Predict the 3D structure of the following.
Amino acid sequence: MTFTLSSSDLLDLSVGAAVLGTGGGGDPHIGRLMARRAIGSGHVRVLGLDDVDDDWFVVPCAQMGAPSIGAEKLPNGAEPVQALRTLETYVGRTADAVVAVECGGINSMIPLVVAAQTGLPVVDADGMGRAFPELQMKTFAAYGVSGSPMAMAGEFGETSIIDTGGDNARMEWLARGVTMRMGGVAHISEFSMDGRDLKRTAIPGTLTLGLTIGRAVRRARTEHRPVSEALAEVVAESGYAGVRSLFNGKIVDVERTVDAGFTKGRARFRAFESAAELVVDFQNEFLTARLDGELVCVVPDLICVLDSETGEAITTDRLRYGQRVQVLGIGTPPVMRTEAALAAFGPAAFGLDTPFVPVEQLA
Amino acid sequence: MTFTLSSSDLLDLSVGAAVLGTGGGGDPHIGRLMARRAIGSGHVRVLGLDDVDDDWFVVPCAQMGAPSIGAEKLPNGAEPVQALRTLETYVGRTADAVVAVECGGINSMIPLVVAAQTGLPVVDADGMGRAFPELQMKTFAAYGVSGSPMAMAGEFGETSIIDTGGDNARMEWLARGVTMRMGGVAHISEFSMDGRDLKRTAIPGTLTLGLTIGRAVRRARTEHRPVSEALAEVVAESGYAGVRSLFNGKIVDVERTVDAGFTKGRARFRAFESAAELVVDFQNEFLTARLDGELVCVVPDLICVLDSETGEAITTDRLRYGQRVQVLGIGTPPVMRTEAALAAFGPAAFGLDTPFVPVEQLA
């Protein structure tokens, strides 16, 4: 299904992408400003995954780095296309379309920036169905697409290409080192592939899902309905496994550091009218939620912390003492829960010693 | 002047390169083993700088990293050529010759490894006239050659290309980050240029100088002559500004850390028959020598610490308490003492607050 997206859609998309960002993925607000500037009064053409030709060359475009640095160190705006052009030159092919690596956070927007600046269409899909902190944590990788060669661009016009053959974890390791030296944030093109592979490995419709979630949140606020209810309705119509309410309360403690290029830490939430405590750990994104010590949601299922008043998602770098929040769990689609997928981005990939159990069973 | 170099020359070259390494440049012993394996019973063709055609494409090849890591983490042997091939593919040109970036330490040998494996000739020249710790510290850079694009190869077959346009210091910054992520040692091709630029910016004859110094040290030992005397004779016939004896004594203290990809520290030497103390600071290579607080030699002049018994140079990562040594200063050629050269690798480039004064005036 082809449609056009204009600047007036960006606010809804940024709200939805913040939910799908599960605390990370970079601040979609900054991505929205970049996309708004790039699109202006024009528009971007969005193609359904089925509209992609098998032989097309499709390039995923993204920002990489610690969200808490990305929130302060803004791009000059030319980096995303420069990363694309660097990749194109290296592989000797020209992109037919761009796509998101993750539908959450700022990376919902970066492909729109590239599309607006180049005239290329954007495919309505991504490789995470949410946001993840590391490059190899993608359905693209889980189902056999190589991340290399990868192109990176920094704010001073510098570029880097990394080629680790089929070793996506090593690509992440090297690229993270370059990102830190580029100041903590870089723009990248990686996991380039033909349309055939994209259709085989991507999660379809996630750009639309972000837009739909954003619209639902906006309407719920206008209609004074609970945002979680509106979210549940939208998610029920997607391929995702439904929404669970995990907790209502306020933030009583946040530990957060930037370590090895990631925003890492832990937040504690206390219930309003009992001693119940929720503890959420994060590495850019939320990883686990434990209610009085019992696991209630674990990666790759989505943990979303929504502001109780606005219904908007709060990113890990914006968690503050005293915020009143509702914490939701969203079950991921089946393609993200296979053995191959969990090997790429399940609990063990984060060093957690818990097996994956769907949020529908836990909460 | 063209000549051929065989495995039997490597021991002399490694001894001479250790002297020219001024404490750093990586352990030439390991480079010698790599070159011996690559050359086998064959040989490498060495061309004088004047024999290089103006339109040739010449590629400097080197190892990069902290010497104390390079001494323990040996390459698999394929990396140097892989870095060259990666650069060739990226720029779309094939090398006509290779050259050393530095004539000191292991990097006197890496071009020989590449030459032996590819059949290319090696140019008898380099871009440092010694060894320096950072990529932009080259006569190539001082006289306007761009280091970018730069290719890097690691032990697992991974490659990286870095392109910072004319900003060689930023190239160093990014490449150092990649080197650390490649395990502390990487192999690189950078500052590729045509023969015209090489002739304009390189220091001629430094491969021969390394060989000649090595032979002189060997003969001096056979003839029971002081090594410093033999060195002075050889250097007097080169473009270098002569040899000064700075100190005789033993090492009484060594502080050494690996920090940000470099081997950094300070060594203290006590005289045999007085309370005189020499303090030498280093960042991979020796930077300053102070005798009882007075500067007696400063970068880019060479500070060489020779084992009193063997006459062989001791690298910064092999300095040990109790070693009996002679410390020499060697004055660099005029091309390394111009304003442009000192801006690239003089005392200020290392954050030192002393102006450059030639060792002939200081000691």
About this structure: Residues 237-362 of chain A form a domain with the CV3147-like fold (CATH 2.40.390.10).
